Amino acid sequence: MSSSLSPFLINPTDARGLVGSRDEQLLQVIRDEFGDQLASSDDWFSSEIKDGAPTAYEALHAVVHGGPYSDNPEHAFQYGYAYKRLCALTGSHLDNSSFSPFRGTWLDVVDEGLQALRITAVSLAEFGYSSGMPDGIPYSYLPGCGVWTHEACLEALEQFEQTKRDNHAPPLEPEVVEAIADVLAWLRHAQARPGFGVIGFVS
Q: Reduced to 3 states, what is the DSSP secondary structure of residue 77?
């Protein structure tokens, strides 16, 4: 079974602020412009919805209004995907070609490559957990969500620059080098936007 990492360039504070914002205009935009995506999601999760899980729009409405949420923990995944949709709408998609799809421990493998380059301020594995979900959104195993703050992105880039200054070049597999190049591009995008970082979702 394969997974996918979806990273977004976004201000994490602004993203968290969408939860409980009661922004009806935002909900209307999503309903008008992304109705097909919502319908596709409902079709994919039709059996879960039949068993009482909220629809994609119902989950979005709950997240934007800060509740109410289903008491059934098996339905919590819909709220995580709702938050992902909010980040996708308000942030910018980053190139994830090295991470979609991926299998097994690929994120850990690339993390090992980053660490070999002495880059420790960020970790791809963080995106596989749910520690980045805003407070209040019910916990679910999927989607995973992690946050790289602007400061962490700057620190990681400085660590990379120091590695270059030290002429430290450990041998890495070509596919790992390619994936790290993608990560460095994300970090540079964040560097160029004060306050912006990376929010990533694994599903």
A: helix
| Half-sphere exposure in the Cβ direction for 161 (13 Å, CA) | 8
- What Å distances lie between residue 138 and 42, 73, 109, 199, CA to CA? 19, 8, 30, 18
Number of C-alpha atoms within 13 angstroms, CB side, residue 108?
4
Q: In whole angstroms, what is the distance from residue 117 CA to residue 147 CA?
A: 21
C-alpha 17/C-alpha 13 separation (Å) is 6
**Residues 115-159 pLDDT 10s:** 999 999 999 999 999 889 999 999 999 999 999 999 999 999 999
Residues 85/197, Cβ–Cβ less than 8 Å: no
Q: Give the 3-state secondary structure of residue 92.
A: strand
Residue that the structure tokens 């996708």 belong to: 88
Report how far residue 142's alpha carbon sits from residue 190's, in angstroms, rounded to the nearest whole number: 25
pLDDT tens per residue across span 170-190: 999 999 999 999 999 999 999
Question: CA distances (Å), 194 to each of 4, 109, 164, 179, in order?
Answer: 27, 30, 24, 24
Cα separation, 52 vs 70, in Å, equals 9
Paired residues of 148 in beta bridges: 198
Query: Which of 21, 10, 55 lies closest to 35 in space, CA to CA?
Result: 55
Residue pointed to by tokens 């289903």:
70
